[in-house]
Design goal:
12 helices; alpha/beta; 35% helix
């Protein structure tokens, strides 16, 4: 269950949910149904067995934009009417799916695994944050097990929710590698920022760093890829105007994940000035694509960013960011050495390893299902009212299958 999925991805959560599902269904024994939101006015089903994607319309009886949730009753009725079997296990990525997961857990005793990508309580105060934080607290209390992308995130979960005595397992995110080594960017002074436009990302300090660097280097440029609230975006643009760097900064806005992947290697460096990250997927993607990385080591970034593979930003201040950027220009040999080390680092974060870790966790909670062995996928035809008979676990031809939602 995820609010974001391929075709409608906002950030790292959607990228991880999509790539993880594709990695999981390559393993025999997994029948995976994705519940997510869609942009069509009707419910759409993409049936590419053993994976099926059900997209429920945004802003409809199935999904409330105002309350940011999937509406349980109409979704359950739709699933029953179209012959979708109850899952053996629920894997939830997004708070918007909390009530739907709760329904299946308590009505049918289906275990719930919650991948907690970040904690709402750590975000800056904004409209609706208190309610979303309360919902996340309930989801954490309900989950049979929780996965987090870093030890830092695990520590924060234990700090803010000490009542949770269940398993919290660190399963780091993965990245798709490019096999070839990229050539150096044609313009080392052309920099890239990718991510949400929020105060926690250090963008205001980055803009001030660009102003400092411009005093000695008029060639400097910064492209900003990502979106934020209208109010905060306006605030950032006013800062750029006040600093007289409007001509040096380009606000690109939101791009599709594949378009972002094509960008990385054409820039002189990727800048990640975050105050904290639960993992830091943009930094890992920059490493995988052979782009020089200038980054903090805050939060989950600490687990893979270091002096050997990046120019490290020690504090989130304009002067520190500017100093770390200058370092990649002044020491090109060191920069290229770091790029090579970064590729080696990223190569250790593959989807096979990550999917193995998830399968091990799923096997523990989907009792009675040997989900890592072969099975016959369940085919569901459009309009079918009843599920095909499931093989009995007592019959010798049963090889094991598991349905994941």
């Amino acid at each position: 269950m995820t609010n974001e999925y391929e075709g409608n991805i906002v950030g790292g959560l959607g990228i991880i949910a999509t790539n993880l599902s594709k990695a999981l269904v390559k393993r025999n024994g997994i029948l995976l149904t994705i519940i997510c939101k869609g942009v069509s006015r009707q419910v759409t089903v993409e049936n590419d067995s053993p994976i099926r994607i059900i997209r429920f319309p945004l802003g409809s009886k199935y999904h409330s934009v105002r309350s940011q949730k999937f509406n349980t009753a109409p979704i359950v009725r739709w699933l029953q009417a179209h012959g979708f079997a109850r899952p053996d296990l629920i894997h939830i990525h997004s708070l918007q799916c909390d009530e739907l997961a709760k329904y299946y857990k308590y009505k049918y005793r289906i275990p719930v695994i919650y991948t907690c990508h970040s904690l709402v309580v750590l975000e800056r105060k904004k409209s609706g944050r208190t309610k979303m934080a309360a919902r996340q607290k309930k989801l954490i209390r309900m989950a049979n097990a929780i996965t987090v992308p870093s030890q830092w995130q695990k520590n924060k979960n234990r700090q803010y929710y000490p009542f949770y005595k269940g398993q919290i397992k660190v399963i780091q995110n993965a990245v798709s590698m490019k096999n070839e080594m990229n050539k150096s960017a044609s313009n080392p002074y052309h920099l890239l920022y990718v991510g949400r436009l929020t105060a926690i990302k250090g963008i205001k300090e980055l803009l001030n760093a660009i102003s400092l660097l411009k005093k000695s280097n008029h060639q400097i440029k910064l492209d900003i890829v990502g979106e934020g609230s209208k109010a905060y975006t306006i605030k950032l643009k006013k800062i750029a105007q006040k600093l007289n760097i409007n001509k040096n900064v380009k606000w690109i806005g939101k791009l599709k994940p594949m378009a972002v992947q094509r960008l990385y290697s054409s820039y002189g460096a990727v800048i990640v000035p975050s105050r904290h990250e639960s993992f830091g997927l943009v930094a890992m993607e920059a490493m995988a694509n052979g782009a020089p990385l200038v980054s903090t080591r805050k939060g989950g970034l600490h687990s893979f960013v270091n002096m050997n593979n990046a120019s490290v930003i020690r504090t989130v201040t304009a002067s520190s960011i500017a100093s770390s950027i200058r370092e990649i220009w002044r020491n090109p040999d060191v920069t290229m050495s770091r790029v090579r080390m970064a590729k080696e680092t990223a190569n250790r974060y593959g989807w096979i390893k990550v999917s193995n870790q998830y399968l091990s966790l799923f096997s523990k909670y989907a009792k009675g299902r040997r989900i890592n062995v072969a099975c016959t996928p369940l085919e569901i035809e459009k309009g079918m009212e009843n599920e095909a008979p499931r093989p009995s676990m007592d019959r010798p031809e049963y090889l094991g299958e598991a349905r994941l939602l």
